[in-house]
Amino acid sequence: MKKKIFLYARLLATTAIFFALFKFIPYEQLIEVYSNSDKLYLVLAFFIFYCALSLCVARWRFLLSSLGLTISFREVIYSYYSGLFLNLFFPSYIAGDIFRGFSMSYRHGSLKKVASSILMDRFSGVTALVLLASTCFFFGAEILKDRIVIVTLFILSFFIGISFLIIFSKTFFLLLMSVFKDDSALKRKLVSFHDQLYFFRENPSVFIKALLLSFLSQFLLAWGFFIASLAFGSKINIIYFLILVPIILAIASIPLTIAGAGTREACTVYFFALVGMNKSIGLGIALLNLIFLVSAGILGGVIYVGVYHRRLQLNT
Questions:
Q1: DSSP state, 232?
Q2: Which domain holds residue 52?
Q3: What's the whole-number mean pLDDT along residues 132-146?
Q4: Backbone φ, ψ for residue 41 (5° rounding)
Q5: What are phi and psi of 258, to 5 degrees?
């Protein structure tokens, strides 16, 4: 019952945000923005988004192989895209990650290894977001001094710092575990799982390579937003996209709405309005990214129904 309540609450939040956005930004303006856009740039932005997604798939396969799970690139694509389909109906990326963990461990075993690969996959992605935004902010701080941006970057950096300590410091992790009873079953499971994660502390080159792939994929996403802005006639400096897009994507990953829809659009409109972008253009860019996510999810649904569910059934 609680799950249904949370789902309905997020549906309501998603609907409310979009209602507010279209109340302040008339849909006629949005239609005009799209009708006057450079369609070649829109196609290019879509292509860049898919290139970034391909790097995410490659990153996960690299993490799996580093943990000793040799899985074909094709099957990793099947699992990853099928997860994207589930993300269309549930908050943030949680459902897709659960499906990835289930499908890979179901076919290849090693649940702890698969789960740790997914956690590190997400952690390296969010870390790359914060590093990209912070680095570009450091070099472009003189052109973007808004307090909200600074506070948001600080909060994200703090979160990454704490997460880094939890994953890579046994002392810090065990200190946190002291809140549980010594004979707690949950504590034993968490400690056992952390032992699997400690592989990345003992093999730092694996995490660094995953982080580099994440950094490149996040750069491509920011570049895709920039190309989309050119399609709508915006002349905003690309440095703003390298600072603001990672912040927007990090906030959109918080499980507040369905697949981050609404949150992503509201943040895009708000943050880019700070640097002079027309709100209808900001909404148009965000909706283009949403269309990309929906198209990738639909493709994932086709892959699951047409191919992947049969492979899963072979294990029954």
A1: T
A2: 32-146+208-313
A3: 73
A4: -65, -35
A5: -70, 120
